[in-house]
Amino acid sequence: MHLALAFCLLIQTPEPPKEETTLKVPLVEQATLGGQIRIRGEYKDPADYRLPGTNGRPASESVHDGDEYLLLRIRLNLDVDILKDLKASVQLQDSRMFGEEGSVLTDLESTDVHQGWVRMSNLFEQPVALQLGRMELPTLGDGRLISPGDWHNVGRTWDGLSATWTPEGFWVHGFATLLSEDAGTDGRDQYFYGLYGSYRGVEKHEIDAYVFVRDFRNKPATGEDGITGDISDFTAGVRMKGAIAGFDYTGEIDLQRGDFANDRETAMAIALLAGYTFDIAWKPRLGVEVTRASGDDDPVDGDHGTFDPLFPFAHYFHGFFDLVGWRNVRTMMVSVRVQPSEWLAAQLDAHVFTLDEKKDAWYGITGATRRDATGSSPGGVGKELDLSGKIKCNDRMDISLGLSVFQAGRFVEETGPSPDGIWGWLQTSVKF
Questions:
Q1: How far apart (Å, rounded) are the C-alpha atoms in residues 182 and 396?
Q2: What tens digit of pLDDT does each residue of 67-79 get?
Q3: For 161-179, b where at least 16 C-beta lie within 10 A, e where not — what string?
Q4: Could you give the residue ranges of the DSSP H alpha helices within 142-237?
Q5: pLDDT for 8-48, tens place per residue?
Q6: Residue 420: DSSP 8-state
Q7: For residues 318 and 302, is the Cβ–Cβ distance under 8 A?
């Protein structure tokens, strides 16, 4: 932390006048070139709590293995204002891990079009915008269900169509996307749709309602009878968020219904958060959060009860170690955040994780980690302590870093090797 502070202090200079990097291009009103270079180093020990030979982990590995790596992400974007209400954007991205080529004399094709879209605004002289192409969907609500997932070294984009309507006091966003195109002709595609509405007519408050629909026709699910099948379901929810006189609160509840292979799906999730920011030096905020995401109480009854958080910003909510996803879990967090200056902030989070249903699995952010189908193991997954900080060097550069410690609970101890974990990271991001 001290080294990062010293580095930022060395490079801090008075901000130059802000000027857009514009280009003169024929037949367009304005073209703007920009980008980002982000570098992050991570160390995890253990690197994975999955038991070797289960849930996709090679049998040759060990639960006691640690790992360290350095990630690089480069983005280059060109935004073009073709007409007053017609805009196009292209963003190229190269994402890689240092050393993955195996030799400095080789190269990997890690570059792709991250975004490429056209947007038309003020359609029919109304506050309506239509966007078509490959795009990042906006973070909807707090990002518990839909987020671009910026922490990931690639990030998340969708191919499709979106529309935004912004009458006074409201914000409404809808989208229709194609996630996976079947190479054959039998229509085994994956579609994802959503409609999100927010009332913002009361200052510092948001009242939201939404529904998301999955139509996955390529048999991505395995039912309790062991047969693979499609997913056809919806997730509906409401959310309220506000702040008044130093207090802030957020409440969100979701219901998930549909078909999961041959199983009938019924699942739910709830998140409640409250905090208070003291009007003193360093602006300390004390917060508490409790959440629940349902699990499956019987692995053979043909009813799928495990909540699926869709496409969340999972890294942010349930510990930076990324050991716990929002499914079959009950969590509690106490958080303290301080901001000594405009360019420095730090936060300490303490988490407790417990299984919602003991016969269901412990899920990480990418899938099942461990399972005791008998339900005889205790439900305590563990405790985690996260210390993180962010240093804003200037408007173009920031440095963030963190350290997390995980103490394994009784469920982990009774299902296999259960070493306590440590994870640290250091990231710098430069925008131009």
A1: 42
A2: 999 999 999 999 9
A3: bbbbeeeeeebbbbbebeb
A4: none
A5: 654 554 454 445 566 666 767 889 999 999 999 999 999 99
A6: -
A7: no
